[in-house]
Design a protein that fits this description.
The structure is a single chain. With about 180 residues, the protein is α+β, with helices and mostly antiparallel strands. It is built from five helices and eleven strands, in the order ββααβββαβββββαβα. The chain has one domain: VSR Endonuclease (Endonuclease, Chain A), CATH 3.40.960.10. The chain has helices at about 20, 30-40, 75-90, 135-145, 160-175, and strands at about 1-5, 10, 50-55, 65, 70-75, 95, 100-105, 110, 115-120, 125, 150-155. The protein has a four-stranded mixed sheet, sandwiched between helices. The chain has a three-stranded antiparallel sheet with strand order 3-7-8, covered by helices on one side. A two-stranded antiparallel sheet has the order 1-2.
């Protein structure tokens, strides 16, 4: 059993998702994720060492997901759906996609580019369907360096985000927006 960092409720997840949920902040639902981020005291990028603006996005290799409603491409469908939920469902207009580079301390030429940054709260959100080789170590280093302000949105949220994104799309189609 895990305890939600926001509401304090005990919850459990599938064993293959536990490795994602137990890193840093543990959140039991999309509602708690949204409320947890909203409750953070605002910080700016200047409050963190080693963070710069990503002036040149890395080339997107392989499959990408294009969000028509946002007019932007994402590296994965999961990231695109989550962006739509944050912007249209939660009203977070201050979300930026891959606009910061974190130079990880005590590593040789290692950088970390978090998926999303919420400007008014100084919180980064990392969307992961699964950790690829080395990405978990980089995430943990960034999580520590950024004072716990990188929140992992793991595969345990995928179905809820997909459902929410589809409802938002239907609503926009029906309302002509």
């Amino acid at each position: 059993m895990l305890t939600c960092s926001h509401c304090g409720r005990d919850f459990d997840v599938r064993s293959d998702h536990r490795k994602y949920v137990s890193i840093g902040v543990t959140l039991c639902s999309l509602t708690c994720l949204r409320l947890y981020v909203d409750s953070r005291l605002p910080l700016t990028v200047a409050d963190f060492e080693g963070v710069g603006t990503n002036m040149r996005l890395p080339a997107m290799n392989g499959e990408t997901y294009y969000s028509v409603s946002l007019g932007q491409s994402f590296r994965s469908e999961y990231e695109g759906m989550f962006a739509e939920v944050m912007v249209f469902g939660w009203g977070w207009g201050d979300i930026r996609y891959e606009n910061h580079v974190v130079r990880l301390k005590n590593t040789i030429r290692k950088i970390y580019i978090p998926d999303f940054f919420r400007e008014t709260k100084g919180v980064w959100l990392e969307v992961k369907g699964e950790f690829l080789s080395g990405s978990k170590k980089k995430f943990l280093l960034a999580h520590e360096q950024l004072q716990g302000r990188v929140i992992l949105v793991g595969p345990n949220f995928y179905n809820d985000i997909r459902r929410e994104a589809m409802l938002l799309r239907r609503h926009r189609l029906c309302s002509g927006g």
